[in-house]
Amino acid sequence: MSLATLDPAAADDRPRRAWFSAATGAALEAQQGRGFLWAAPALSLGIGAYFALDQEPGTLLLASLAAAGAGLFWLGRATGPLLLAGLVFWGFALAGFQSWRSATPLLAFTMGEVTVTGRAVSVDRSSRTRLVMILAPEQIAGLAPERLPNHLRLTLPERAGATPPGARVTFRARLAPLPSPVAPGAFDYGRSLWFGGVGGTGRVTSQTIEILDVPRTILPLESWLSAIRAAMGARIRAALAEPYSSFAEALITGERSSIPPEVNKSLLISGLYHILSISGLHMWLVAGSVFWAVRAGLALAPGLALRFPIRKWAAGAALLMGLFYMLLAQGGTATARSFLMVAIVFFAVIVDRPALSMRNLALAAVAILVLDPQAAVEASFQMSFLAVLGLVAFYEFWARRKEEHGAGQEPTPHWAWRIARWAAAAFIASLVTSLIAGFSSSLPAAYHFGRISPYGVLANGLAIPVVGVLVMPFALLSVLLMPFGLEQLPLTVMGKGLELVIAIANGVAALPGANEVIARPPLTAMLTMVAGMVLLCLLAGPVRLAGLAVMALGALLVLPAPPPPDLLIEAAGANVALRDTAGQLVPAQPRRARFAVEKWLQANGEEASLAEAAKRPGWNCSDGRCTATVRGRAVVYLAGGEGKPLNCEGVDILIASFPLRGDCRNVALRIDRFDLWRHGAHAIGLSGPEPLVTTARGAQGRRPWVVAPEPRPPAD
User: Fold this and answer.
1) Contact 319, 280 (CB under 8 A)
2) Residue 332 is inside which H or E element, if any?
3) Alpha-carbon dihedral angle through residues 674, 677, 680, 685, given to the nearest 10 degrees
4) 310-328 and 280-299 are packed helices; what angle lies between their axes, rounded to 10 degrees?
5) Which helix (H) or strand (E) holds 41?
6) Per-residue pLDDT tens for 505-548?
7) Is the pTM of this model over 0.85?
8) What share of the chain is helix, strand, coil (3-state, %, to 5)?
9) How many CB atoms lie within 10 A of CB 582?
10) How far is 537 from 636, CA to CA, in rounded Å?
11) What is the rounded end-to-end Cα distance, in angstroms, of the chain?
12) How far apart are CA 132 and CA 168, in angstroms?
């Protein structure tokens, strides 16, 4: 007699266990051959763990993790989980070694007007009248040679003179350390500069820059490309009126500084700002146009088409055009990443592999993360990777669905009906593409920028076909015809396309509720939603629906967000903002520290300017002394009046833009200029029994890119 006969409950449970075993086996079998797709998420997890630390790991730990990753990779050659664990360790080690490779001495104090001598690495335009120079300093007056940063980032007026890259120059400048975040946990621009080898910033004060020498052999390619950009820009401006000439120049040469502010704002609000950034969309349109044009042209010669691999020749031509476009567009990081992804796709064509596949996307992402691990924590990589991930996953799903259901035989319709169907299909495809890419990229965009575009799908659905048909193909054609002086007609067509794009942007931006700024969501909620999306896209079979449950969990985590700070203090004490009972920020000063305060407002989900927010009730200011009551506590902010007698009676929190030294020691919480100098911007939470103080440098931790401030040395 069997145990099942003796135990009826066990007999009843046996079919459920068999079903569960069969379902589990089927789910695991569906994942066969998809292990490599998880390589990029595994590397990203390790890289994220490195950047989440509050102090730098030692070299021994990094080497040990790299060795452990290699061991797991070897032991788990046939076991996916061990391979992925090894990649997590490698991601951590890669980020650490990139940090070691990027290390540079940091400027630890501000320097007044000093003489600087060095070699210009690059000079780019930041606005209509200002330039940005990356300088390799050779000598800075008053700074020991061993403390010279590898590079300085300097702003200068255009009238100071054109400086060719590679020139040795000297000038006067005011120098400062790398910027710290505008609030605890905010974006760390100083870290991004540090990974580029920049150890200090500054502003050129000389009326003109003295060029000491220009080596004859300096960067001939860059000099040639600079001349090409200038010549193309002149041709574009001669053919098109503003703002279309500036728009066209941005798409062709990457020069965006002359685009009018109202056009930038309209594109930003409507969700079309990504069109200005030469990245995946533009690279695909340019390289793809060359691929199809070359292939179609070669196919017109039957002798070539039948005897030679013209598809591979076309892919090679597309690769060369993509490389030229990347170099012409001044090869920014996002452009270089996009070219790498395009290069992998066309290389797959050359070696007879599927071009558009999840495996190629995974390979491109792994290559980017190995070459530049810091990309994993940057908004541009996250947005582009998730957008392409969503599109490729949908493409594979739709192709599989069509294959399963079969194409079917239909009678050939009239040519007019075929054209109408093609146009409708193109429009629907554009809307679906915009919806998927927009939603996928909106997750990191909401966290990093605090902005969403409610009508972005509509704007992109209308504008992307215009960009794909009238703008980029004719931009490519105009570049090819410029050597012959025949660029006028294609540029005119491109200008009409840009006119349509701007009209779409203006129309969408004017819709009610188009300009939505949201408060920064919690990091845990964003990570959970992104993890859910990755599961949804990378898993195969019905089990992928678990990703939707994980995304829903992430959405729920947004709700119990920790209470925001009640007071925010700028890093130099130039301004302080309180949070009123409606949750809005109220700055004490209407004109000081505009950049930092407007970043606070944006992170709080507000579109108001500094001047507008400062008009709200909350502060009472007179003669440099501002008072307020926040959650029952008396707050005093001293924006001036250093050296005057201070009245500290009844004050709970005292904030001063100057050193308090021994004044007001009876105040429970004092924050003065010295505290801000040491720790950066402050945030104070007053929801508990005691004030909770957090600082920007405390949130940064003890990392190589975090400046440990030092007193300015006395002048000689």
Assistant:
1) no
2) none
3) 10
4) 140
5) helix 39-52
6) 999 988 887 777 777 788 888 899 999 999 999 888 888 888 99
7) no
8) 55, 15, 30
9) 7
10) 53
11) 101
12) 16
